[in-house]
Each structure stands twice: as C-alpha cells, then as structure tokens.
Q: What sequence folds into this?
C-alpha cells in the first residue's frame, strides 16, 4: 500500500498525513472468509479497509446474522482506538482484502503528540459512530412500531435481526437501552 493508492480513498488528506498514516499502520492482507476480529474478543486495534469488502457479523441464538457490508474507505472496529473494550461483532473478509491496521497505543501516541492525523481519525470515529447510532435508532423505531402495532405480515426473525443490529450498534457506543433509560409509554406516544 502506498500514499497514491490511499489518495483516492482519503481525498482530503495531505501527502504528509497519508505518509504518516502508512507509517502508523500495518498493512494486512486477508483471504476471503478470514476473520479480522471476533465478537467478544478484546479490542486493541481498528482496520481501514483499502481493498475488498468485509461483512460485520453478529450471532443471535447461535445463528449468524450479517449486519453490514463495508467497502474501501470504511473503518471497522474504531472504538478500540479510544476505549479498552470487547468486540461487539465479528468482521469477516468477503473477498481478498487489504486493510491498514492501527493499534490503540499507536493512536494514543499520535493524540498525545497533537498529530493532525489523530484529529482526522477522531473525526472519522465520531462520524462512523453517528452513522451507526442513527442506523440503530432507525431499526429501533421499526422494532418499537411493530411492537406497538403488531402485524402478522412481518416474521419474528426480522425483528430478531433488527435487535441484533441495534445491540451491536448501541453496544459499540455504550448507549444504554435499559427500560429506565427509554420509558416505553413515551415511545408509544411518539409513535402514535
């Protein structure tokens, strides 16, 4: 991987930032079907997908559910850079992929040095988090609407997949979904 190959994926980055990114990351190659990380494992790095595609997988009642497909230019596992936690989902290469892996301690060192690259990554982490929470909120609204107005046309497995998606999305960002956090009567009233 070189800076010119990254320029198309990160058009707003300067040559210096792209060189710094390459210096701070390790280029990893994964064949199709390989797991980049597994749900429940300790998280200490994230991946920037440069070539190929990955799928985000969550297990629900022992069944594998694909929650998302990510293509070049996407980060996956980004909360590992800012928090010591466990993976909320698994990530599998759909095709042969090339990814740049950045470790938490490398990222923290860049932050401490006041690196513009660290600031850019923080912006990407925030943007990815916002997109993930927005998608989880949309799915939650669908699940709640179904719970309030049940329909025989919608099978329960769709709700279970939506709940797995919500769990992964909100778990990644430590958003509480306890009944005390969001009282159902208030939600029912808004959906009416």
A:
């Amino acid at each position: 991987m070189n800076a010119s190959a990254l320029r198309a994926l990160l058009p707003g980055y300067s040559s210096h930032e792209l060189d710094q990114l390459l210096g701070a990351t390790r280029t990893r190659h994964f064949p199709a079907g390989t797991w980049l990380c597994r749900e429940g494992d300790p998280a200490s790095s994230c991946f920037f997908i440069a070539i190929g595609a990955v799928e985000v997988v969550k297990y629900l009642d022992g069944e594998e559910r694909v929650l998302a497909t990510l293509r070049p230019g996407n980060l996956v596992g980004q909360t590992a850079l800012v928090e010591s936690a466990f993976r909320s989902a698994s990530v599998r290469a759909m095709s042969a992929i090339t990814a740049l892996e950045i470790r938490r301690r490398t990222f923290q060192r860049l932050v401490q040095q006041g690196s513009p690259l660290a600031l850019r990554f923080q912006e990407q982490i925030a943007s990815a988090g916002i997109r993930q929470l927005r998608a989880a909120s949309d799915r939650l609204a669908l699940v709640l609407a179904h719970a309030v107005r049940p329909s025989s046309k919608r099978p329960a497995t769709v709700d279970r997949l939506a709940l797995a998606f919500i769990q992964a999305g909100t778990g990644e960002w430590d958003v509480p979904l306890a009944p005390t956090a969001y009282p159902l009567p208030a939600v029912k009233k808004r959906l009416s």
Notes: The chain has two domains: 3-128, 131-191. The radius of gyration is 18 Å.
